[in-house]
Design brief:
This protein has 115 residues and is mainly beta. The strands form two sheets. Strands 2, 4, 5, 6, 9, 10 and 11 form a seven-stranded mixed sheet that branches. The termini are far apart. The protein has strands spanning 3-7, 10-12, 18-25, 33-39, 46-51, 57-59, 67-72, 77-82, 91-99, 102-105, 109-113.
Length: 115
């Protein structure tokens, strides 16, 4: 059974930092392209960042320079370091895997940026 479990969310003040983790199981993590997606209340899901199995990394313009995606294939874990957080970063953050034409979605973790 494929599982993706995100954690690390919480309430943080503007300018603060959080580190999200997503632990994967049930598939060959190192071969998968991994991404973070977020959904703010009342809005469509928004792609945040991706790290491909061969190492290429991409970011949404709104988080470029503030967020850092990484992965530890030995631990089957995806990370998202979020710095200089803004209120507009608020939302549920979900991790997503793409492997051999199949999509896998995990449960999200809530991030709230507010003073």
């Amino acid at each position: 059974e494929v599982q993706l479990q995100a954690s690390g969310g919480g309430l943080v003040q503007p300018g603060g930092s959080l580190r999200l983790s997503c632990v994967a199981s049930g598939f060959t993590f190192g071969s998968a392209d991994m991404s973070w997606v977020r959904q703010a209340p009342g809005k469509d899901p928004e792609w945040v960042s991706s790290i491909y199995s061969y190492g290429t990394i991409t970011y949404h313009d709104s988080v470029e320079g503030r967020f850092t995606i990484s992965r530890d294939n030995a631990k089957n874990t995806l990370y998202l370091q979020m710095d200089s957080l803004k209120p507009e970063d608020t939302g549920v953050y979900l991790c997503y895997a793409y492997l051999y034409g199949v999509e896998y979605w995990g449960k999200g973790t809530q991030v709230t940026v507010s003073s």
